[in-house]
Amino acid sequence: MPTRSSTPAVRVLLIAIGLVTLVWALGVVVFGTVDLITQLAAHTIRPTMYWATDQYRFTDDGDGRSGVKISGDGGGVTTAVTGVSTGTIGIYAAATIVRLLIELALGGLAVTLIQRFRSGRPFVGAAWRLVAATSVAVLALGIVSQLLAWWSRLAIIADAGGTTFSKAFVFDPLTVTIGLTLALVAIAFRVGERLQHETEGLI
Question: Which of 14, 20, 39, 186 is a Cys-bridge partner for 132, taking CB atoms 3.0 to 4.6 Å apart?
Fold first, then answer.
């Protein structure tokens, strides 16, 4: 005899979280794809570039009377780049596509989990393996995307014959954080699956 694995309120909450994740992921994929096509059609790409050390220093003291002073050095900036080689555009496009694949993976996971939570039995069928696989995919694609983005920046700098932008690799922790979070969720699902099996075995 099957048992319910969670209360209706918990299921509703988890379904809501899944729906938000799905809408967000699909929105990013759709708008990201349209934006990439627009860039390629205009022969203008918009990568994030990072100022080289000591190339861009800034200060801001507001109205000059408050005593507050804001200062910094470098940082990322969204650019509009034209005139680069086809190879450079291809690398940039590949980095963007891989990043969008991460959103597709998250959207696919959200759809599956929504269906499972609606049934009231989210842990059946080794659901933890699906979450773990998505975790690995997000981590792998996130690293590849960052490496391709770095390569595209290097290619842009090379095409330009040298610029004031940095050639250093810039690590983005977001996708790694999401991937590791999914790994923890997979562990939680594995525990939930065992508990569900033990509970059903007692009935």
Answer: 186
Q: Which two tokens stand for residue 54?
A: 């000591």
Secondary structure of the chain in the HEC alphabet?
CCCCCCCHHHHHHHHHHHHHHHHHHHHHHHHHHHHHHHHHHHCEECCEEEECCCCCEEEECCCCCCCCCEEEECCEEECCEECCCHHHHHHHHHHHHHHHHHHHHHHHHHHHHHHHHHHCCCCCCCHHHHHHHHHHHHHHHHHHHHHHHHHHHHHHHHHHCCCCECCCCCCCHHHHHHHHHHHHHHHHHHHHHHHHHHHHHCC
Amino acid, single-letter form, for residue 7: T
pTM score: 0.78
Q: Angle formed by the axes of helices 173-201 and 86-119, to 10°? A: 20
The Cα–Cα gap between 139 and 105 comes to: 11
**Angle (CA) 92 150 70, round 5°:** 110
Q: Please count the other Cβ atoms lying within 10 Å of the Cβ belonging to residue 35.
A: 12
- Residue type at 1? M
Cα–Cα distances in angstroms (integers) from residue 65 to residues 28, 57, 59, 68, in the given order: 43, 22, 15, 8
Enumerate the β-bridge partners of residue 73: 57
CA–CA separation, 36 and 149 (whole Å): 14
